Amino acid sequence: MASQKIDLVMLDGLQSKTAFTVGGLARRFNLSNRNEIPLLWQKLVPSLPMAGQLGRETYGVEWGMSGNDFFYMAGVAVAADTKLPEGFVHKSLATQKYIVFRLTLDGTTFQSQMHTAAHHVWEEWAPKNRQKMADAPDFEFYPADFDPMRKGSRVEFWLPAAG
């Protein structure tokens, strides 16, 4: 899969993002069960929009890497004091500068393109550039008009920049 041709580019310069809170469904994953991440999205989507939701964009937030284990959340931006539905959690992200990769979908299998992009970002680029990254959550950003089956839809990978 890592050799699949995809349209993935790193944006020029660092992108700034002010502090925000994501509300959604989260659980701990590892390399052997990360293919279950789409199940979080399948549970999240029917609950949207949520009370306290800010905008229609969605986020896949990753944090707490320990060995091969990490937390992943499928969620939306919410007001920090939002009372979430049972089973949902908040994750606050501080103001941060980010290195951003943009994947433009080609209208074929979404998961295959995401796996290839994630492989490039996390298994090729990141190991060579760890000094450029901060110890903070990273996230996938899905614009309000995102459609995983539409050619031209975009997903962004936001990696926290050091310094």
Summarize the structure.
The chain has helices at residues 37-44, 110-128; strands at 7-10, 15-17, 20-29, 53-66, 69-78, 89-93, 96-104, 138-142, 154-160. The chain is of the alpha+beta class and 163 residues long.
Structure description:
β4 (53-66) and β5 form a beta hairpin. The protein contains two helices and nine strands; from the N terminus they run βββαββββαββ. The mean pLDDT is 94. It folds into two domains: 1-15 and 97-163, no CATH class; 20-53 and 66-93. The termini are far apart. Strands 1, 2, 3, 4, 5, 6, 7, 8 and 9 form a nine-stranded antiparallel sheet that branches. The protein is globular. Helix content is 17%, strand content 41%. With 163 residues, it is of the alpha+beta class.
Question: What percentage of the residues does DSSP assign to strands (E)?
Answer: 35-45%
| Record field, number of beta strands | 9
Number of helices: 2
Shape: globular
Average pLDDT over all residues: 94
Distance between the termini: 33 Å
- What portion of residues is helical? 10-25%
In terms of per-residue confidence, which ranges show pLDDT below 50 for 5 or more consecutive residues?
none
Please, how many domains?
A: 2
Order of helices and strands: EEEHEEEEHEE
